[in-house]
Write a structure and sequence with these properties.
Strand order of the largest sheet of chain A: 1-2-7-6-5
Oligomer: heterodimer
Number of strands of chain A: 9
CATH superfamily of chain B: PAC-like subunit
Number of helices of chain A: 2
Radius of gyration of chain A: 19 Å
Strand content of chain A: 35-45%
Shape of chain A: elongated
Largest interface: A-B, 21 and 21 residues
CATH architecture of chain B: 3-Layer(aba) Sandwich
Distance between the termini of chain A: 22 Å
Number of strands of chain B: 10
Order of helices and strands of chain B: EHEEEEEHEEHEHEHHHH
Chain lengths: 149, 240
Amino acid sequence: MPETRRRKFSLFDLVSDYIENLESLSEEMGRAFAERPSWDTRTCCIEPLCSVFIVADEVVVTADLPNTKPDTIKVEPVNRDLLEIKAEMKRKISFDEFGITHRQGEFQFFRCQARIPVPVDTKRIKTQFKRGILEVHLPRKKSYRIRVE
Amino acid sequence: MERKAVPSNATMLHGLPDVGLVGLIATSHVISQLKMDEVAYVDSELLPPVVVLHEGLPYAPLRIFGDGGLVATISEAAIPAKAVPPIMRKLVEWGQAKSVKLVVSMGGMPVQDRQDIAEPKVYGAASNLALLKTLSDRGIEILKGGFMVGPYALIMRYCAERNVPAIALLAQSFYNYPDPEAAAAAIRELGKITGISIDVSKLVEGGEEIRLRARDVMRRTEQELNRMKKTQEYDLPLYV
């Protein structure tokens, strides 16, 4: 079998490619975060800190939502690999309260989008909100199984 | 660069950006509660071209405060991973030149499901056996094995090399979310070791506000932690 064809079926290569892609995506997201403000005065939104973890049977997305009204939290799939989190703060926060007087604007909402790197079942999403941390559990789709002999 | 007379024979606290910003939040709170004055700052080409404005005046992000028998270092901006080793070495050398009697690093120890922990536990590490015993005697559980990564790891190592007494107080914390409750837990343990009593109610009651303000520093700190391979702290060491 030619080398190129054989490599396609190597589980280790697939995993290695997968991890490389993830790392590259993570770096890309990191750069994107650093290159633009974490707030938007037009929409009165602040981008919360957010993380995505992949484990064997699910993807867990967490977001730090301090000062949030729990009943306003919305978790919505935008498409197959993008999840949007929105929430309203208990009170409006202005730049002034951050010690910034040269900018104008108030913030009342959290909003962020988390990219889901593996297929998940968006119909079975579970959420919990504790100590200001939102936790979203998305069960992974089982697309195929490798039989071990 | 020293701006004022620096106390000698002091206890030196380090509050540098790390997991959960625990050390930075804790040490900033100590500085604020004791109304400590800036006595020195770190000027280095290894640091980004950043100044922090307070009431319109420019300050270096990495500064040292002093008051009586206490000296405290904080960095209001993330320290680039590449700058961490030389700057930590310089801080330890500077502390030794000032005859510090004890170096205390407050920090976080990331745990899964931190949101399920009501009262974060604080673990201790020390640069010598006598200090390990002191920590144990005060009821602080010792970190016996595993890896430490980042500024506190190097401070501990450089202090051990130079026989500068050093301890680290590491509170269970979030990895990449600011954690004022963990900072409060570290300060409580600091009191047991040094006798410095600090009211932490502002940290606990105003925690949500602090988390909101600390978001951007945490975001940039996380990028540097990733470059330092901070997650190596989760690794299981090879003991044969």
